[in-house]
Specification:
Length: 376
């Protein structure tokens, strides 16, 4: 069923903003397949804000901009589907979208019907221009109901940026994923800020309704619509590792037509993707490091008894990562240790007992798959 594991795909916003057209979307779909991203699990191709005309037609329906999308959305959807991918689109709970195009307020059912006719598989639903006195919970319930009764299975991506304590109610409203942050920017400080905002939200995310920490900026290198200085490849690796550990949907934001080898390697790390897509769907809990408050350990229980362990140095100077296994629930007297397999280097570190300690460069991480092993 839709949404059992965190959705994976590509969204046009981070690179293109409203400057989108059907040729870009087709080329992105082609690149997702050619670069092996589809084989790695990325399946949704999502058009963000700016695809429609500024006014609805005489039947109150949304109309694709004929200059940007001359073939229409049904033809574009068919093209994406022909590649073995799924097609996504954008709307907003308010009167207008964030870029000033018609929103779905008071048009939820006709818009859901339209999207179903076009073959849409994914709806990103934003929160701009909402009537000030209207309860946001009701607006997301409306669209969830409309989608569930439109005659097509459409994944519902709720994007209200964590406003109105949405982590407390968005799952019950019917969303498959829910944004808990404002928009990400292509900088380490933005990645750090969004990641730290998730502390305390671990218990609200799970199968069929995942905490969305916003789209990935891996491989953007200070280009595109959300440029703010860019990141190093090591910072992008930490970014990707965190999103996998937090069970965030993995929605690529870079220009997939122009990825370099490093970007492709990060985005297609099969072992980290397996952590993100683990069927138990548990967002990692956290433990603060002993030697530095800048080092945080993320612990994610996996199907079959393994654990994913990600230690991150959020600080700007070298730090020590020191993890005591008793904090995970493994006492020394149990007679077990953890066999650690590094998910970035592929190295097997053997069985460690009681604790594990290593140095971490600024903004860097270590990620392991830990398997319980009897030691005596």
């Amino acid at each position: 069923m839709t949404g059992h594991t965190p959705p994976m795909g590509w969204n046009s916003w981070n690179t293109f903003g409203v400057n989108i057209n059907e040729q870009i979307i087709k080329e992105a779909a082609d690149a997702i397949v050619a670069a092996g991203l589809a084989d790695a699990g990325y399946q949704y191709v999502v058009i963000d804000d700016g695809w429609s005309l500024r006014e609805r037609d005489g039947n109150k329906r949304l109309v694709p901009d004929p200059e940007k999308f001359p073939s229409g959305m049904k033809a574009l959807s068919d093209y994406v589907h022909s590649k073995g991918l799924k097609f996504g689109i954008y709307s907003c709970a308010g009167v207008k979208t964030c870029a000033g195009y018609p929103g779905s307020f008071e048009h939820e059912f006709i818009d859901a019907e339209t999207f179903a006719e076009w073959g849409v598989d994914f709806l990103k639903y934003d929160y701009c221009y909402k009537p000030r006195d209207m309860d946001g919970r009701l607006l997301y319930r409306r669209m969830a109901m409309a989608l569930k009764n439109c005659g097509r299975e459409i994944l519902f991506s709720a994007c209200n940026w964590g406003i109105d304590d949405s982590h407390l109610w968005m799952r019950s409203a019917g969303a498959h994923m829910w944004r808990s942050t404002y928009d990400i920017l292509d900088s380490w400080e933005s990645i750090k800020k969004l990641a730290l905002q998730q502390l305390g939200k671990e218990c609200y995310s799970g199968p069929y309704s995942y905490n969305d920490v916003d789209m990935l900026v891996v491989g953007m290198y200070n280009k595109g619509n959300v440029a703010l200085g860019g990141c190093t490849d090591e910072e992008y690796k930490t970014h990707f590792s965190l999103w996998c550990m937090m069970n965030s949907p993995l929605m690529i934001g870079c220009d997939v037509r122009k990825m370099n080898k490093a970007t492709r390697s990060i985005l297609t790390n099969k072992e980290l993707i397996a952590v993100n897509q683990d069927l138990e769907g548990r967002q990692a809990y956290t433990i603060t490091g002993w030697h530095s408050k800048d080092v945080i350990h993320y612990i994610k229980p996996l199907v079959g008894g393994d654990y994913a362990i990600c230690s991150v140095n959020f600080g700007d100077s070298k730090g020590w990562s020191h993890l005591e296994f008793w904090d995970l629930g493994l006492p020394t007297a149990a007679g077990y240790g953890f066999e650690l397999h590094d998910l970035w280097t592929g190295e097997n570190l053997g069985v460690k007992t009681e604790s594990y300690m290593t140095a971490l460069e600024p903004h860097c991480c270590k990620v392991f798959r830990a398997k319980l092993k009897k030691v005596n």
